[in-house]
Amino acid sequence: MKKLIVAISCMLAFTAGSLQAKDWKEIRIAVDVPYEPFEYKAADGTLTGFEIDLGNAVCAEIGAKCEWITQAWDGIIPGLLARKYDAIMSSMSITEERAKKVLFSEGYYNTPSGWFAKKGANLNTSDKASMKGKKVGVQRGTLQDNYVTDNLGDVVEVKRYTTADDLVLDLKGGRLDVVFLDYPVGEKTIINDSDYETVGDTIPVGDGIGVAFRKRDTELADKFNKALKKLKEDGTYDTIMKKYFTYNIKI
Questions:
Q1: Where is the Solute-binding protein family 3/N-terminal domain (predicted)?
Q2: What is the pLDDT of residues 24-44, one digit of tens each?
């Protein structure tokens, strides 16, 4: 009887192991677009951008077929936890609060945030008193949202947007006085228009950007970490970075 129990136990363990094992030959990656230059749609409708190119290079290194899935930012972590996709590679800052819900890869880039406004607005974003009553745009649920809420939330009207595109449209429509954005996004979408400019100094927020996974998917996170390390060492990362930036964002 004891041998039978042992045999059954072994069979159950093997079956459970087989069910849990995953070869990760196909990986679904969520991204919130548009967030130029990190992820956005080209004129022909295809997804492009720094993180799309880097993610595809990671998948090639892993030997996996990757599928990009667009998902609004508000639901991007719930979607991961609900298994709608396997990873989030969408400029997600590594924070202590998010790390309670997801497993992060090693950081793969870091950029500062910046203030952007119409030329002649004469704003001093470092002077809290002078900002009283101003309308400030941020993307909802981002570190920039947290920064403005924590530092100016009691004197300004914080207007939160689902996408960076909507935020920029309201700035250019005169419905916002200033916006606070990841600097490269503002650089690409706002100050390419000569009527707009940066205001004050750039501000570092957060500890960098990581790929997010479900906490149980440690094997997948390990594959991403090893692939990112290889791409940073063999020059692939730098080649992709220089396609989108004139400065170094690598960490």
A1: 26-248
A2: 999 999 999 999 999 999 999
